[in-house]
Amino acid sequence: MSDPYIGEIRMMGFNYAPYGWAQCNGQVVNIVQNQALFVLLGTIYGGNGSSNFNLPNLQGRSPVGMGQGLGLSNISIGEQGGVENVSLTTQNMPSHTHVASVTGGGAVTGQISIPATTSTASGTQTAAPGTTAVLGPVSVSDRQGQLYSTATDGATTLKPFNVTLQGTAPAITNSLVGNNTPIALRNPFLGINFCIALQGVYPTRQ
Predict the structure, then answer these.
(1) Which of 173, 191, 183, 205 is nearest to 85 (CA)?
(2) Exposure winner among 37, 80, 100, 187, fewest CB in 10 A?
(3) β-strands 183-184, 193-197: how paired?
(4) pLDDT tens across 6-22, in order?
């Protein structure tokens, strides 16, 4: 491969680096033995900058042009980013609601018992029933009044009164679905051998 620029990266169809080239695998190289390449790359791709520096690492990565494209993020030379897979969370979902309906179980029936205190002793007061006066038989001249009957040919309704009912509201739980499988973000790809020139023509600026 004649006269490449030092630091030039090419794609090879074979799986090794030709003489004077090195694979772009992020390996550490010595500055003394690669001074011209170090002047061009510095520590853009890593290294301590005093005795060694790193070559670019394109293993499993797709190169993109540096700079800021229209409507895109700015990319600096040597910057790495992106992930191969991503797991979605609720933070990635659009705002939404879940609709749930509850079907009634029909009419509710029951009984209400109202306790009342009575007495078998003849009444001696004219006060209304209360905590110290309870309902008892009516007695006139030592003769009890006849207020009760065994016949049931009539009916009446007590004055309406308030009743407090207590219960538990039904709990609605949305079923959990899915198994948190990460989503693959990688486009269809083809593995290629990227190599960088260690020797060649030093590239001069225009």
Answers:
(1) 183
(2) 187
(3) unpaired
(4) 999 999 999 999 999 99
- What phi and psi, each to the nearest 5 degrees, are found at residue 128? -70, 150
- For the record, the structure tokens of 40 come out as 């061009």
Cβ 92 vs Cβ 77: under 8 Å = no
Model-level pTM? 0.63
* Phi-psi group of 38: left, alpha or beta (phi > 0 → left; psi -120 to 50 → alpha; rest → beta): alpha
Give residue limits of the domains in the chain. Answer: 9-62+189-197
DSSP 78-111: T-----SEE---GGGSPP----------------
CB 173 within 8 A of CB 158: no
pLDDT, tens digit (0-9, with 9 covering 90-100), for 139-168: 666 666 666 666 666 666 666 777 777 767
CATH of domain 9-62+189-197: 3.90.1340
CA distance 31 to 54: 10
| Token reading at 189 | 């790809």
Query: Is 53 exposed, middle or buried (CB count within 10 Å of its CB: 0-12, 13-18, 19+)?
Result: buried
List the Cα angle 69/55/27 in 5-degree steps: 135
Burial of 133 (0-12, 13-18, 19+ CB in 10 A): middle
Question: What is the three-class DSSP state of 50?
Answer: coil
What contacts 129, CB < 8 A, 6 or more positions away?
A: 135
- Predicted confidence (pLDDT) per residue in 84-94, tens digit: 999 988 888 88
